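Give me structure tokens for this 357-residue protein.
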Amino acid sequence: MTQGSLSEEALRQIRLFRRQYLQLLDAQNLAWPSSETLRSSQAQEWIYEHLFQTDDVSRFLPPERYRLLILKPLMSKIENSIVDPEEDEISDNLMSTLAELMFSPMPDDATAAQQRNWVTYTPLSEDSPSLDKEPELKLLENRAVISGAGTTGLRTWEAALHLSSYLISTPELIASIKGKRVIELGAGTGLLSILCASHLGASQVVATDGDEGVVQALHENAAFNDVKDAMDIGVLWWGRALKGSWMFEKDPSFSCDLVLGADVTYDKAVIPALVSTMRDMFEVWPHVQIIISATIRNSDTFAAFEYACAHNEFNVHEVDYPLIPMEQQTSLFHSTAVPIKIFSITAPAKQRDPYAI
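Here you go.
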């Protein structure tokens, strides 16, 4: 089926719905296509082919539990959109898929919560051109708040999605990343690192995390997105000497232009070590820029980070990049219920310029 038989508005709606579906958004947060769109047999077949059809790429689809959770209300909405039962049809493919899913054995809630599943992100900015094939990043994630491995690093959090949106929407940042070396602190699933390596043209990306299990998962996600050759991945313990790390053992002349960190200020206990590593980076690379995206869940915890930066005389600038309500987001969807702020941090003036007064 060609897209030419669908109106521009119908195509916009079902593409938006697909992005949200592949990112495993909760049903209540989905932008369901209009009744007029769902009534169209062409739209129904597009939805089947791009959201539910199992073929050679079906391993990247959401898990069966999620597919069933979305397909049931989708079919109800399609049925309710019917105006003339003799003229308006319901897709046989969608109906057959619903029947198959309803009779498929499903894991129990506890088991499902600990499974890793594919989550697909679409790095599009508001002014991205309309493309027949949209750019995608596919990550294996555990959507539980804390995984069975006892880590929060196996899912992508809101601060990383907000920072990713900022990076792809800011021309000067895109220009500053292209051809440069980037380090990510607390990389988790690797969304930011893989985005820089695959879509923003960084010459080298170093993805680091303090959890060895998370680092192993990072290797998998880099390989799945065909950027393993453009990335170095390893454990980095905050608070330990940077020059003694594996990065410098591999390349004694290693340098960095940009450091990224998302949701790395979540725990007051880790802030001294984090800021120590940032201070070490400024000493080794005086002109490096550090961009931190922080979800402000606890004002006291974030105040401790701000105080530590001020104590070390870092230059901290809050970036003017406001949150967009989820219902207005078109990609990289994330909750805005809790404030998220982005900060650009550079070395103390005298460190960057020893002759500064």
